């Protein structure tokens, strides 16, 4: 682990909605070519932490360094432009756009038409279903299909860091498996993956490293193997 | 009623419909992108008309011999640019700042801004409290087709309005920038995560919506040969109603709404037994009924989409 380059460093981060701190003094490192899992029960602050990294909820204090540059305080589109893509919680697809338009939005920052076409083809290879439905309005797709749109859109940008927030929520077990396979594939391309998942077992099965968040603090961290044995993980999830 | 008179009424209705549609498009664009109602939008129309008039008066005093075609082009250009700029300043200085406060505050602030614009024109435009004659910028040509008089200036104005609407349609649906506008309208946070510059899209939307309103103001001035500082109040109310009956947030709905309102006014003026002075009462009353029947407007996509 120590040798892996870590593009994202979070230091002493505090994030608040209004007055109450939801994230209190979090430190993390996300490595390239690795899947870093973020575990924690409902309301632990996982989504909030990701929102702070993405610039949607600017942190109150602390720093987020991406590829050696401070990104906290930048507007979301500038952070995205640095090479961070996101598959957000709740899919957040553009429901009145076609499937293909959604995917094209994912490549919004790319100017090179050939590259966009290649990525589109790649996403259609991963999710043949989306190719069949490319002209359909995304909002009329089934829940699982919408998840594919959201994941596909996140892959359209060839980011350096992909942030994923509960991608398999509401998916059938078969689709969840597909989903994890895709995530592993992305990571093998050298991309850093920061993954939030409710499915602890499966997350720890593919993650290299993990953090456990409880009430806005990191209560445990370690390799997946370590976390599997950890009391904190059991506590955070099962009571 | 005889056919000639009917045709005349239809043409008048089409002109009014176009004006209302242009105003309604602004309301619906702002609502679509930011979920807010910009109450000063009617007064933006008025500022557009006065910016055009001011440019005309200034041109006449500085270059009295200038060709009317050029005068017309300059007046349109100056008015559109000035009002686009007004829209950008409004978005940057007021709307964006009020982003984190309750929508009601934006409503109130823009309502007050409308009054400020109105009073500013009344007080600072020379003799601004009285109606101002609006110059004949377009040629006086007209044809008589089967007894019906068709005025060239009306045709030009209508075509100009059509071109603007067509331009906006192309921009929104066929360009990457337009895709970004639609993305922001549907989910602004997700759009930003894709790399869309939110503030820029908001400013662009305000520039567009306001520019279109300026054209409506000029159209109104040329069609009626007269403008006044409070003309935006009724136009704003009508544009807003048109946007609502069409389905707020939907551009095509706003256009349809504009023509429907003009149609209602025309019916109120000619087909009903009471005096034509009641045409607005009639049209607004029907709008209220329509709203009760279809609360989400004709093209109600916002509600069905949000599942
Ligand atoms: N916009 C908001 N305004 C105020 N409080 C919020 C807001 N969003 C989240 N919170 C609060 O912050 C805390 C952390 O929420 P967050 O969404 O980060 O949890 P999470 O770990 O992602 O949970 P889940 O697993 O359910 O998605 C919760 O107590 C929540 O109520
Ligand atoms: Mg969450």
Describe what you observe in this structure:
The complex is a heterodimer of chains A (239) and B (307). With 239 residues, chain A is of the alpha/beta class. Chain A is built from 10 helices and 10 strands. In chain A, the strands form 2 sheets. In chain A, strands 6-7-8-3-9-10 form a 6-stranded mixed beta sheet, with helices on both faces. In chain A, helix 3 runs parallel beside helix 6 (143-155). The longest helix of chain A is centred in the last third of the chain and has 16 residues, at 173-188. Chain B has helices at residues 3-34, 41-62, 68-95, 103-124, 152-174, 176-186, 188-193, 198-224, 231-246, 251-270, 279-293, 302-305; strands at 132-133, 142-145, 148-151, 226-227. In chain B, the strands form 2 sheets. Chain B has a two-stranded antiparallel ribbon with strand order 1-4. In chain B, strands 2-3 form a two-stranded antiparallel ribbon. Chain B starts with a helix and ends with a helix. Chains A and B meet through helix 2 and helix 3 of A and helix 6 and helix 7 of B. The complex binds adenosine-5'-triphosphate (ATP) and magnesium ion. Magnesium ion (MG) binds next to helix 1 of chain A.
Largest contact between chains: A-B, 26 and 21 residues
**Largest beta sheet of chain A, briefly?**
6 strands, mixed
Hetero compounds: adenosine-5'-triphosphate, magnesium ion
CATH third-level topology of chain B: ABC transporter involved in vitamin B12 uptake, BtuC
Main sheet strand line-up of chain A: 6-7-8-3-9-10
The proportion of strand residues of chain B reads under 5%
Number of strands of chain B: 4
Classify the secondary structure makeup of chain B into a structural class.
mainly alpha
């Amino acid at each position: 682990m120590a040798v892996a380059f870590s593009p994202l460093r979070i230091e002493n981060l505090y994030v608040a909605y209004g007055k109450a701190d939801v994230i209190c003094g979090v430190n993390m490192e996300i490595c390239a070519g690795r899947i870093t899992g973020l575990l924690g029960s409902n309301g632990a602050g996982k989504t909030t932490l990701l929102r702070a990294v993405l610039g949607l909820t600017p942190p109150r204090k602390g720093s987020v360094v991406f590829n050696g540059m401070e990104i906290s305080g930048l507007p979301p589109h500038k952070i995205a432009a640095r090479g961070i893509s996101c598959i957000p919680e709740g899919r957040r697809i553009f429901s009145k756009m076609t499937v293909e338009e959604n995917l094209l939005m994912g490549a919004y920052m790319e100017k090179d038409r050939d590259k966009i076409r290649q990525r589109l083809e790649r996403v259609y290879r991963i999710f043949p279903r989306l190719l069949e439905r490319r002209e359909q309005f995304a909002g009329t797709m089934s829940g699982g299909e919408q998840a594919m749109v959201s994941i596909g859109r996140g892959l359209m940008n060839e980011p350096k860091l992909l942030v994923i927030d509960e991608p398999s929520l509401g998916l059938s077990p078969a689709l969840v498996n597909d989903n994890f396979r895709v995530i592993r594939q992305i990571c093998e391309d050298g991309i850093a993956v920061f993954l939030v998942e409710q499915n602890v077992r499966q997350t720890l099965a593919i993650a290299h490293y993990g953090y456990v968040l409880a009430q806005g603090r990191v209560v445990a961290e370690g390799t997946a193997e370590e976390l599997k044995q950890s009391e904190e993980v059991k506590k955070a999830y099962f009571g | 009623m005889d056919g000639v008179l009917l045709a005349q009424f239809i043409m008048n209705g089409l002109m009014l419909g176009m004006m209302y549609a242009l105003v309604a498009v602004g309301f619906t664009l702002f609502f679509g992108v930011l979920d807010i109602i910009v109450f000063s939008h009617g007064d933006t129309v008025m500022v557009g008309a006065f910016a055009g008039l001011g440019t005309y008066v200034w041109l006449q005093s500085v270059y009295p011999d200038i060709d009317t075609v050029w005068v017309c082009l300059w007046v349109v250009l100056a008015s559109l640019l000035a009002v686009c700029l007004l829209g950008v300043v409004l978005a940057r200085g007021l709307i964006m700042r009020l982003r984190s406060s309750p929508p009601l505050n934006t409503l109130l602030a823009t309502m007050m801004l409308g009054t400020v614009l109105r009073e500013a024109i009344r007080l600072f435009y020379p003799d601004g409290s009285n109606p101002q004659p609006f110059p004949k910028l377009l040629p006086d040509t007209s044809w008589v087709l089967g007894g019906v008089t068709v005025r060239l200036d009306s045709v030009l104005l209508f075509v100009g309005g059509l071109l603007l609407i067509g331009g906006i349609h192309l921009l929104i649906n066929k360009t990457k920038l337009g895709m970004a506008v639609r993305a922001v309208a549907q989910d602004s946070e997700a759009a930003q995560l894709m790399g869309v510059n939110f503030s820029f899209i908001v400013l662009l939307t305000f520039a567009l919506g306001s520019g279109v309103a300026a054209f409506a103001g000029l159209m109104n001035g040329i069609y009626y040969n007269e403008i006044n500082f409070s003309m935006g109040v009724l136009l704003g109310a009508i544009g807003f109603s048109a946007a609502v009956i069409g389905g707020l947030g939907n551009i095509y709905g706003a256009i349809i709404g504009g023509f429907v309102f003009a149609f209602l006014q025309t019916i109120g003026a000619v087909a009903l037994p009471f005096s034509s002075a009641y045409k607005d009462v009639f049209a607004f009353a029907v709008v209220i009924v329509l709203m009760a029947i279809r609360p989400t407007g004709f093209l109600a996509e916002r509600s069905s989409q949000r599942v």
